Amino acid sequence: MRHGAFAYTWDLVGDPSAAARFAALGIDTVTVQAAYHSVRATTAWHPAHRVVHAEHAAAYFRIRPERWRGLRPLAPAWGVDDEDHFGTATAALAAAGLRSEAWVVLTHSSVLGRSAPELAVRNAYGEVFSHALCPAQPAVQDYALTIVQEICEQYDVPALVLEACGWLGFEHASQHEKTSGADLSTCARDLLSICLCPACAARLTLDVPRLAADIRTIVDRELQQGIRAGATLADALGTERADAIYQHRRDVITGLVREAGALPGERDLLLMATDDPQVTGPDVGVELAGFAPAPAAFVLKCWDDEESAIARVKAAAARTDVRLVANVNALGERPEELSALAAGLVAAGASELRYYHAGLASPARQEAIRLAVQEVS
Ligand SMILES: [Zn+2]
Which of 3, 133, 136, 281 is deepest in the core (most CB within 10 A)? Predict the structure, then answer.
């Protein structure tokens, strides 16, 4: 049983005791931030800082300018100065006997979305979601695959965990979010998440202007009159149009996974996914059954209550033979229940666990991770 934990590069770079502290959790793997969106994070033990504010999405691996065409990630200007945050972090982990995976966020970058709005997700009103690069855009695909390629060429990591390998939609976790008061249903949010940018419009086998008009009508009815959009996109738009949208998403996401897998180097690709094609977000919504080419594993987010998380893993295990990795939240309300949750997820079919998050966890949560690793084998 492989137990791993997520970590940021700034948890490790400049802190000579961090890798040993992670090893003391009993884990064998650390999923290390290699490309990541903006965030504010605490660093409880770091000799040089307590709060890191990553002000924009950045690449933590070495950026070789000549390798990039068009979109290029920015380097971080926070944490401890280092030419190669990812390389320094993974070297420290290797010295402590720990295996590193590259944690790669592909399409979530507000800084790039703002600089190239023509490459960002565009809803049925023509409004740009600048936090979300559209993966149907060839330039975004090129950017995402260059990230994967640059990591594979420069680092001897056995696996990459792909986050946001598809569309981010209307949801955008932000402390300044002011949309909840509109009481939008899940279906209306999913309607607002459908990208109709030129690349998507060209690939969707639908009457796109009519689709956009219908989405606007349905969402406006909900926003202005409180008439619910329905439960699913099929309810709201008809089965044929919902299926065409899912087919388009599947084609793009499987295309990215296929091309990433074809890049040189023997690396496992682990895909953060949700077994529901209606879902957009960091865990891409896809039918797990029949997903081809199969990644080395699907990483399933298990951050909600124990019963739902276990049911999700059990359902996924019944739908696919691909290995399942449970992404377990150690930052939840009851860290003392982490061991029971981990055991339940393994019994339900998860063959590996990744605890979120070794750098952010308080001492009590670190202890909960340590106990879960000890008790679940
Ligand atoms: Zn698009």
Answer: 133
